[in-house]
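EI: anyone free to look at a 113-residue chain?
SC: sure, send it
EI:
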Amino acid sequence: MIIKYISFLVGLTWSYSLIKTQSIFSKKTGLIFKIFISKVSWLTFLVAIYYGYKNFSFKATAVGIIVSVVIVHLGFMFLSKFLKSKFSEKQLIFSKNFFEYSLIVWILYYFIY
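SC: here you go
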């Protein structure tokens, strides 16, 4: 039973972290991310909630949802503070832009080939 609940928490945390990741990207990349990844993540998140509701009590499911959302938000907050302390604003913007354009190229490559 513990393994089922831990897998439920991992599924919720994973899918919500991908949903939260969408807010980091710019509008153009965010649109691509929203179309290809975020829709699946929302579906996974909702299915995980349904799985939790069917296998555990309502209270255990609600606690799992709250815990996973808090973990993701705390993770993003600590990661943001860490990156800001290690890198300059210019380096962070360059890295973000590089990652966004790499994502666009990767998706285009995937659809062309």
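EI: The radius of gyration is 17 Å.
SC: 👍
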